[in-house]
Amino acid sequence: MAGFDKVVSSYEEAMAGLSDNMTVISGGFGLCGIAENLINEIQRKGTKGLTFVSNNCGVDDFGLGILLPNRQIKKIIASYVGENAEFERQMMAGELEVELTPQGTLAEKMRAGGAGIPAFFTATGYGTPVAEGKEERQFNGRDYILEESITGDFAIVKAWKADRYGNLVFRKTARNFNPLAATAGKITVVEVEEIVEPGELDPDQIHTPGIYVDRLIQGTFEKRIEQRTVRPSDTEA
Amino acid sequence: MALSREQIAQRVAQELQDGYYVNLGIGIPTLVANYVPQGMEVMLQSENGLLGMGQFPTEEEIDADLINAGKQTVTMATGASIFDSAESFAMIRGGHVDLTVLGAFEVDVNGNIASYMIPGKLIKGMGGAMDLVAGADNIIVTMTHASKHGVSKLLSNCSLPLTGKGCIKKVLTDLALIEIKEGKFHLLERAPGVSVEEIKNLTEGELVVSGDIPEMTF
C-alpha cells in the first residue's frame, strides 16, 4: 500500500487487527449487499465476543448467521432478526444479547456516528419499549427520545465498484446501510466486484468518497436471494 | 361477510390519490399495489432504499441487488430512484411519504399500535414500523377485527408492547372502517352484510356509532 491506494491482497490482510470483543458495523439488508467474504474471514479467524451492528443477522448458513454456531457474536444491534433458527435459539436461551432498534434509528445512529454527532432526538420509539431509560424531550409540542450514535472498531461494507483510492459506487438496493456503515468504522473494510484505476469513476457519480475507506479488496459473490419472487414472463405491466 | 384480504386491499386503494408517494407494509398492505385505480399515478416507497418500486421480475429479470423491504426480488418503475437507508428514513421521518399502510396485532382508542412483538413468542423486531408510524401523518392500519377465537383487537388499551403511541387515526379491518379521535373509535363504514351489532360485539374499546353506517362499496 502506498499513498491513497487502499487495495489489500488477501482477506487475512483485510480483516487484520480484528480481535475478541470488538464492535463491527455491517452493511446489508437481509442478504442483499452483505460483505460475504469478509464475514467468511471473520468465521475463519474465529474471533469471539463480537458486537455486531447490522440491520439483520443473516440466515442459518449465510451472512452473519454463519458466526452463530461457534458463538462468535455476543451481542447484536439490529432492527429485524427473523428467518434464523439458531439465532432464535440463542436469543431465547439468553446466550445472545439482542438490542432491537428501529430501522431508521439504526441508520441514523450509524450516520451520526460517522459524522461525529454523539446523539440525536427522534420521535421514533417514543412511548414504546425502545424509549426505556432514554431521555425524553418536547420540541414544538411533540415528544422525542434521545438516541446515541454508534461507531465501530471495524466496519464491513460491500460495494459494486471502487477505484484504488476507495471511492465507492453501490448498485441498486444493495446500497442500503453500506454507505452509512462505511463512515462509522475506525477501520472500514470494503469488498467490491470490480476495482478500477483512480480517475475512471466519474466524481459526480461516487456514492462514498475514499476518505472513509481504509482497506479494499476485490471478491466474487454468491449473492443469495432470500425471497425469490417472479411473475410469468408473458404478463405485461 | 367479512372482507377477504383482497377486498381489504381494494378498500385501502380507494384512499389513494394521484401523485401519492406510498409505503406499503408486508402482508395485506402489499396487495394494495394491485388495485391502484386506472389512470392514477402512485409511487411506492420501499424503506430499504427504493422509491418507485415496480412489479415482480420475470425469471430473466431477477437481480439479487434489487429487492423490497420484504426481501422479495422486485423491479424498478420508470422514474425510480435509489438511496441509502438514512436517506430512506429521512423521507419517512420527515413526513414526505403521503400514505403509509401497515398491519398490526392491536390498536386502541388512543391511537396506540402494537405490531411487532409478542413477548415470549414472537420477537423478530420492528424493522421500519416504528419509524413509519412515528413519521407519517396519514396512516391506515389493516388488520383482522378479532382473533379466530373472537377476541377483539380494537381495544381500550393495547396489551402488547407498543410500536407507536398516539399515532393511528384510521383502521380498516375485515369488518369495518374506523376512525380514531378523542379517545374513541368511530365507525365510518361496515363490510357488506356485516351489522353494526356484530362490529360492536367484536370491538372492546368504546365505539361511537352515529347515524346510518354505510356499507363499503367496491
UniProtKB/TrEMBL annotation, chain A:
Pfam families: CoA_trans
Alphabetical keyword list: Transferase
KW Transferase (keyword) present: yes
Origin superkingdom: Bacteria
One Gene Ontology MF term: CoA-transferase activity
InterPro entries associated with the record: 3-oxoacid_CoA-transf_A, CoA_trans_fam_I, NagB/RpiA_transferase-like
Entry keyword annotation includes Aminoacyl-tRNA synthetase: no
Identification of the protein by name: CoA transferase subunit A
From TrEMBL, chain B:
GO molecular function terms noted in the UniProt entry: CoA-transferase activity
PROSITE patterns xref list: COA_TRANSF_2 (PS01274)
InterPro entries in UniProt: 3-oxoacid_CoA-transf_B (IPR012791), CoA_trans_fam_I (IPR004165), CoA_transf_AS (IPR004164), NagB/RpiA_transferase-like (IPR037171)
UniProt-recorded name of the protein: CoA transferase subunit B
Gene3D superfamilies named among the record's database cross-references: Glutaconate Coenzyme A-transferase
Keyword Transferase carried by entry: yes
Domain of life: Bacteria
SUPFAM superfamilies the record matches: NagB/RpiA/CoA transferase-like
Keywords of this entry: Transferase
PANTHER family: KETOACID-COENZYME A TRANSFERASE, SUCCINYL-COA:3-KETOACID COENZYME A TRANSFERASE SUBUNIT B-RELATED
Family: Belongs to the 3-oxoacid CoA-transferase subunit B family.
Pfam families in UniProt: CoA_trans
Alphabetical list of NCBIfam families matching this protein: pcaJ_scoB_fam
Species in which this protein is naturally found: Litorilituus lipolyticus
